[in-house]
Amino acid sequence: MIRPAAPDDVPEILRLVRDLAEYERALHEVRATEDDLRAALFGPEPKAFAHIAEDGGRVVGFALWFLNFSTWLGRHGVYLEDLYVDPAMRGRGYGKALLAELARIAAERGYGRVEWSVLNWNAPSIAFYESLGARPQDEWTVYRLTGEPLAALGGAAALTSQDE
């Protein structure tokens, strides 16, 4: 069963986030807390959304997503931040069902695309995504600004804005 996440799912979502990070060899980078996820997903103006895969009432997977925007299409899209299914539950259609639900939402709302990133070494996930018709966007490289560089640039922008 696939359903929208509820506030009571937050501990399970965080567990799955941590499991995904461990699989991706980056558990040490997880800083999110239950409070962070609860605020992002269920605060007064949520900016992120999640869907849950259940088996017999037990949470076995999730998809966490948010809206992006394509200036070329002139429409919103769905950016899939995380998709994860417990390893023991893989091969039963939960990942496909979660992606199908996001595709349904995108089509129903007139969004132009569903996109996500996958680690280059994650061959099982790449094969799964390609089996659904997804294609890599090899001509694009993801850049990220975080930590000290983010703070430094943000501070420089704040000074520039004050000078104007």
Q: Could you characterize what this model shows?
A:
- The protein has a single domain, classed as Aminopeptidase (3-Layer(aba) Sandwich).
- Strand 2 and strand 3 form a beta hairpin.
- The relative contact order is 0.12.
- The protein is an alpha+beta fold and 164 residues long.
- Strands 1-2-3-4-5 form a 5-stranded mixed β-sheet, sandwiched between helices.
- The protein has 5 helices and 5 strands, in the order βααβββαβαα.
- InterPro entries: Acyl_CoA_acyltransferase (IPR016181), Diverse_Substrate_AcTransf (IPR051016), GNAT_dom (IPR000182).
Strand and helix map with partners:
Blueprint: E1 2-4, H1 10-23, H2 34-42, E2 49-55, E3 58-70, E4 75-85, H3 94-109, E5 114-116, H4 123-131, H5 147-163
Parallel strand pairs: 4-5
Antiparallel strand pairs: 1-2, 2-3, 3-4
Question: What distinguishing features does this structure have?
Answer:
164 residues; alpha+beta; Aminopeptidase; 5 helices; 23% strand; transferase; acyltransferase
Secondary-structure-based class equals alpha+beta
Rg from C-alpha positions? 17 Å
CATH class: Alpha Beta
Compute the number of structural domains: 1
Strand content: 15-25%
Side by side, the strands of the main sheet go 1-2-3-4-5
CATH H-level superfamily: Gcn5-related N-acetyltransferase (GNAT)
Percent of residues in helices: 25-40%
Reported for the largest beta sheet, the result is: 5 strands, mixed
Distance between the termini: 54 Å
According to DSSP, the number of beta strands is: 5
- The CATH topology assignment is Aminopeptidase
Using the alpha-carbon principal axes, give the shape.
globular
Organism: Actinomadura parmotrematis
Keywords: Acyltransferase, Coiled coil, Transferase
Coiled coil: 13-40
Pfam families: Acetyltransf_1 (PF00583)
